[in-house]
Write a structure and sequence with these properties.
- The structure is a homodimer.
- Chain A is an alpha+beta fold.
- Chain A contains 4 helices and 3 strands.
- A 3-stranded antiparallel sheet of chain A has the order 1-3-2.
- The N terminus of chain A is likely disordered.
- At the A-B interface, helix 1, helix 2 and helix 4 of A face helix 1, helix 2 and helix 4 of B.
- Chain B binds a DNA duplex through helix 2, helix 3 and strand 3.
DNA sequence: GATACTCCCATCGATAGACGATGGGAACGC
DNA sequence: GCGTTCCCATCGTCTATCGATGGGAGTATC
């Protein structure tokens, strides 16, 4: 024990926002969302499926996204998620709040 | 229930870094640290004492900070915390990692 | 037509971190 | 004396991430 394991994967509290953002581009299935986050972030952000699926459940429960079964690009059974209008609003809200906080943190980091 | 209460206060996982950053300026007591974060961030970041003291305990345990009792500016009994050399290193590490992740998140937010 | 590999779903248990509530004590102003 | 501000700290709850685990359905390989 002790030895630090790899990178912290991601910042708690930001996953929902990231997923909403990906879905703002169009429908996607869980596996694809995880891949996408990983690739766009150039491997810095790693979303495990055990973080992702609970997140998607939350988003469904809150009505930010809806889901429908279909076939993936590879002809496999997949569940496609997409944003609801409420989800779009939520994305805007979360982005603003996120930026607000990041700016504040940077202020502390720089200005003392 | 339901109605979201006020702002999310702060991003989980960033508190330790913020505290280390404050202490990099010089010794300070718990109450002062909380005030300082609040004021420098212009009230955006709100650190409750029930978040702060456990954080300070963690930092002590890890050897990033040390503590000594003394008298505050207002002549009250106070515990002053200050960075250890290990704490300075840790601050550098955490800042780098934080920036890495923030940049990655921004990439996702912007580039798709 | 078996085997292996990739894709895609999902849950469970452990762990950690932030927060509200709570409690106490000591200095200071009135 | 009494209230307010300052300063300490813990406990219980809640939420979220993560590792481990399990399964099933296509495709490719031999």
């Amino acid at each position: 024990m002790g030895t630090r394991s790899a990178p912290p994967d991601l910042l708690p509290g930001t996953l929902d926002m990231l997923v909403l953002r990906i879905l703002a581009r169009g429908r996607a299935h869980g596996y694809g969302i995880a891949q996408h986050i990983k690739s766009v972030s150039e491997d810095v952000l790693q979303v495990g499926e055990s973080s992702l699926y609970p997140a998607l459940q939350r988003l469904l429960l809150n009505g930010w996204v809806k889901a429908e079964w279909g076939a993936s690009e590879n002809n496999r059974r997949a569940r496609f998620y997409s944003l609801t209008p409420a989800g779009r609003k939520q994305l805007v809200t979360e982005r603003e709040e996120f930026q607000r906080i990041i700016v504040a943190i940077q202020k502390v980091l720089e200005n003392a």
